[in-house]
Write a structure and sequence with these properties.
The protein is an alpha/beta fold. The protein has 2 domains: 170 residues, Rossmann fold, CATH 3.40.50.1260; 196 residues, Phosphoglycerate kinase, N-terminal domain (Rossmann fold). It is built from 15 helices and 15 strands. Strand 14, helix 13 and strand 15 form a beta-alpha-beta unit. Helix 1 crosses helix 3, helix 9 crosses helix 10 and helix 11 runs parallel beside helix 12. The chain starts with 14 loop residues before the first strand and ends with a helix. The mean pLDDT is 96. Bound molecules: adenosine-5'-diphosphate and magnesium ion. Adenosine-5'-diphosphate (ADP) binds next to strand 12, helix 13 and helix 14.
Length: 396
């Protein structure tokens, strides 16, 4: 179903509540260290301003657990400061997200002005999706717009609950872009469709793998989960992380791939260490089998080459899950190599998952991908084939 977006609505003179994801990282002085999430919401915000809406923004930040006693740590003030710089106009920061003071501020808003409500999660009713709280938020506005893809997999008062109590609703441009790219990559991919799946655990990615097996032509496995697959084929994997209770599942996944004629590629060589540490001895093992005293911490150079060839000749590449313990330099090459290959690829390239997106960012290649999802958990649930409550709530 086509998602209705903000540009389908008349906004002039209306109070438009936009749920954004301003859950940004802060330094010790309370300065925003990465404003990517704020910038990702700008197209929707500037559109609403240009349409002469009275703009009300709301977000969560961190995990204040329903309390405002640590307000200095969880306030959205740093985000308000950064947003104001980016917009080149004042942003009014409310000292709460509900209550008489906020009602008054919302009422007094003029066309084109921007009001940012204080952290939604200062109230336990937000995450509880409390109906009374949802009604209170809805009473602030005429139009509800969800542009917080990062929390779209959560049914909270501001991300889903309040949609029932507003006159008009729509998705913002970021949510639309996410749903479009992730949806197109999975639903109607240019072929061959090559998926790369890595990360720590098979158990985290069962549904992701199953959904991709039904759609992809090739699935390349990397990360720690590769050792569970190798162990399931009785390949020795030394001290590598193996989920012993998932061996049967790994076998079933491999059987399914065969039955569906999906090429399921596993590492043929490895970068190993004697411990998962930056200072560990680094050994390239030029074989599928890993010696007993070592653990696999990254895909090896021949594996990277094989995966790179698939990436370069793909119509669509979808990647979720780092190829190794990429946070530590000795084991980062497989992950950065995949990111570079995707950056060079001619096909559509889409990255989902929090750590994978961080790896692409670390490599400085975000701009060279077709789409890097801003939603970690939300993008995974989307790829699992689940309906996201924050997206569903935008539909009539
Ligand atoms: P995403 O957030 O992109 O979905 P995951 O959360 O599934 O990715 O996995 C990322 C984590 O997996 C990273 O912290 C990475 O260090 C870890 N990882 C990947 N390969 C290995 C490995 N061989 N050994 C230990 N940890 C690994
Ligand atoms: Mg992760």
């Amino acid at each position: 179903m086509a998602l209705k977006t903000i540009d389908a609505l008349q906004l002039a003179g209306k109070r438009v509540f936009i749920r954004v994801d301003f859950n940004v990282p802060l330094d010790e002085q309370g300065k925003v260290t990465d404003d990517a999430r704020i910038r990702a919401a700008l197209p929707t915000i500037t559109y609403a301003i240009a349409q002469k809406a009275k703009v009300i923004l709301a977000s969560h930040l961190g995990r204040p657990k329903g309390k405002s006693d640590d307000k200095a740590r969880f306030t959205l003030e740093p985000a308000a400061v950064r947003l104001s710089e980016l917009l080149g106009q004042d942003v009014i920061l409310a000292d709460d997200c509900a209550g008489d003071g906020v009602v008054k501020l919302a009422r007094e808003l003029r066309e084109g002005q921007v009001l940012l409500l204080e952290n939604l999660r200062f109230h336990p009713e937000e995450e509880a999706n409390d109906e009374g709280f949802a009604k209170e938020l809805a009473a602030l506005c005429d139009v509800w717009v969800n542009d917080a893809f990062g929390t779209a997999h959560r049914a909270h008062a501001s991300t889903a609950g309040m949609a029932r109590f507003v006159k008009e609703k729509a998705a913002g441009f970021l949510v639309k872009k996410e749903v479009e790219y992730l949806g197109k990559a999975l639903g109607n991919p240019a072929r061959p469709f090559v998926a790369l799946v890595g990360g720590a655990k098979v158990s985290d990615k069962i549904k992701v793998l199953e959904n991709l097996l039904a759609r992809a032509d090739t699935v390349c496995i990397g990360g720690a989960m590769a050792y569970t697959f190798l162990a399931a084929q009785e390949v020795p994997v030394g001290k590598s992380l193996v989920e012993k209770d998932k061996l049967e599942l790994a076998r079933q996944i491999m059987d399914k791939a065969r039955a569906r004629k999906v090429d399921l590629l596993l590492p043929v060589d490895h970068v190993c260490g004697d411990a998962p540490k930056e200072t560990a001895r680094r050994v390239v093992v030029a074989d599928r089998a890993i010696p007993a005293d070592l653990m696999g911490l990254d895909i090896g150079p021949r594996t990277l080459d094989a995966y790179r060839q698939r990436i370069l000749s793909a119509g669509t590449v979808f990647w979720n899950g780092p190829m190794g313990l990429f946070e530590q330099k000795p084991w980062a090459e497989g992950t950065s190599g995949v990111a570079r290959a995707m950056a060079q690829a001619k096909g559509v390239t889409v990255v989902g998952g929090g750590d994978s997106a961080a790896a692409v960012e670390q490599a400085g290649l975000v701009d060279q991908m077709t789409h890097v999802s801003t939603g970690g958990g939300a993008s995974l649930e989307f790829i699992e084939g689940r309906e996201l409550p924050g997206v569903k709530a935008c539909e009539d």
